Amino acid sequence: MKTILDRISKHADAQTERGAVASYIPELASVDPKQFGMSVVMADGQSFSVGDAATRFSIQSVSKVFTLALALGRLGDQLWSRVGREPSGLPFNSILQLEHERGIPRNPFINAGALVVTDAILAGHQPREVLGELLRFVRAAAGDDDIHINKAVAKSETEHGARNLSLAHFMQAQGNFQNPPEMTCGTYFHQCAIEMTCEQLARAGRFLIGATGPSLISQSNVRRINALMLTCGHYDGSGEFAYRVGLPGKSGVGGGILMIVPNKASVAIWSPGLNAQGNSQLGTEAAEKFAEMTGWSVFG
């Protein structure tokens, strides 16, 4: 495994085209795009890392995996009355589909769907309580209490979050929002501002490996979340990722990717430069090479 990671890192270091950092969030716009890290944690706990795997980065939409786990644990199938389970085929922050489908987001990993999930777990709770619960869950999954929210990133997102607020207000107008949009969006901005290293994120993902991983949620929810990661985890690049990689994965505009090899391993990759779909450019290439070199795929 170390040899495989070394080869992938060497390939990444040689690339001159690395994509563009997320400039619409000022705190992310200043991140050095030359960085690349990758960690693999096996089902038995063995870990392998390469590159900038110990550097903290903003996990952004990768956090949606953890909030979805909390929401399914709390609400079960009731959640699906408010959000769908189909790929969107449109950019992660699109409002077009939301209007056409009367305020029901296509899936929980696009922004509108993630806002509904956050709104659902806020019911009867204060933002501070929900964020505390989320951090406790992530820390328990990673076996590491040194995981925190970057307040500067959260502030930056709040100050430039008009589009997410517009999604929330539209869903409120359609009767699919229970809390004030400002409160749900504020909670969402803070959850996206969680900072982790590749090493921490790979360890945190082990609860999704399956029966061989830590048991933090039911096995039926493990299967469901992995299915959604495969079909919806990379926005309008999800089909391409499934075709090229063949493993469940969730990306974030901070440049991170959490990838699950069922019953075998949890993988975290980070490179802040993004492709046109808002997914890590080098991270996607690294995921493809990893699948090729290991022969691991959900499709045999």
Automatic annotation (TrEMBL):
GO terms for biological process: glutamate biosynthetic process; L-glutamine catabolic process. Transmembrane segments: none annotated. Keywords: Acetylation, Hydrolase. InterPro entries: Beta-lactam/transpept-like, Glutaminase. It comes from the Bacteria. It holds the Pfam family Glutaminase. The keyword Acetylation applies. GO terms for molecular function: glutaminase activity. It catalyses: L-glutamine + H2O = L-glutamate + NH4(+). Its EC number is 3.5.1.2. Substrate binds at S61, N111, E157, N164, Y188, Y235, V253. Belongs to the glutaminase family. Homotetramer. This is Glutaminase. It comes from Cognatishimia activa. The gene is glsA.
